[in-house]
Amino acid sequence: MDNQSQKIIFGLKIKQLRKEQNLSFSQLSELSGMSISYLNEIEKGKKYPREDKIEALAEALNTTVAALTSSELGKKLAPLGELLKSNFLNELPLDLFGLDAGKIVELLANAPTKIGAFITTLVSISRRYALEQENFYFAALRSYQALHDNYFEEIEEKADEFVTKNNLPVNRAVPTRLLNKILKSKYRYRFEEMAFGEAFQELNRFRSIYLPDKKLLMVNNKLTETQRAFLLGKELAFNALKLKTRIYTSTFVKVNSFEEVLNNFKAAYFSGAILMNRESLLNDLNEFFSNPKWNSDDFVVIMNKYKASPEMFFHRLISIIPKYFGLDNIFFIRFNNRLSTSEYHLTKELHLNREHQPYGNALLEHYCRRWITVWMLQDLQSKQIKENYTGMLAGIQRSRFNGSNDEYLCFNDFKTCSPNSRYEH
User: Fold this and answer.
1) Which domains are assigned to the chain?
2) pTM of this prediction?
3) Beta-carbon contacts of residue 44 (< 8 Å; ≥ 6 apart)
4) What is the tens place of the pLDDT at every residue in 233-288?
């Protein structure tokens, strides 16, 4: 157990004993010879007293030094003790939400019986449904994105500075050779094209593997230019933003900390920002939305202008639209569908402001076939089979849910996955 957890547990014990004996802070101050402010800091888990002061507190509260310094808590506070011992609170990004572990524990300790039952229930549910720590990390990231409407000015400014400094084009696609050149000349990267699947089948799901000691980026030779540009943009982000804690594979093998998850998101955001310049894209969107009618071809033209995949493009849209168009009640979902099947899997989702329909859960229920996403996937599948179609389709749908005031305007884009669908953005 770390020092912070020891401070919190010690403070909880002092608070519990003081309340059980109906002692005010001033009374405990007189009995122990310590100031009220110091006692208050102890109870909040901010101070851990010296040995002589612990002895004074033990005498004042009619207990022993061993009882006060033990990591064990009484029955009522036992769930809190388990929570602290697990180090879970320290792993969560509480600071991103203006919280700290001490405040959380203080809140829980004020109603130990009810909150203890809640914690026990939560732990039980998480075990029953194999809810792992990394799920909390990604859930915390989604909440963090929603809290900021998925717009991060600091990263936008860093991206603009990077584009200007390195003379990257802003009104068209950024050539991968330019990104490659910057990584080589400025950050001393070396590159190696590899047929991952031929060497080891297990590596086939990765776009890249980075060896930091050698500054070697091994790139899967099956990547498209779009995927390669996004990958190189992320590598530039890790360096330009000085993100030291990072993953070295293109996708997570194991999540070690929330900082890894957050930095990976920042790198992806930065990559999207340098590949789809904010000002240029805003001009394109303003022109597009000024049209009186929806035009699918014009929508696809904007995407093709930046050589963006649908997912890259939509992630960029849900960063810009809330900030510059005032639409913060927005969501993003991605469905996957294999050719010649009628199964549609929701594989990614992000909800800003509140959770929308459809949404994913552990039961993997079927989704309403009236969503444009489903029937346009069917249309794309038909074109693939009959015409060997490899292009994009775009569509729009206005929907209202029966029995509620929920109404949606959904923009949709569909394309064929790469030969290995796991490469899809």
Assistant:
1) 3-131 (1.10.260.40), 147-423 (no CATH)
2) 0.73
3) 11, 102, 106
4) 999 999 999 999 999 999 888 888 888 999 999 999 999 999 999 999 999 999 99
- Quick: pLDDT tens for 325-340: 988 777 777 766 666 6
Provide the token pair at 230: 């996004």
Q: Give me the amino acid identity at 325.
A: F
Q: How far apart are CA 22 and CA 31, in angstroms?
A: 13
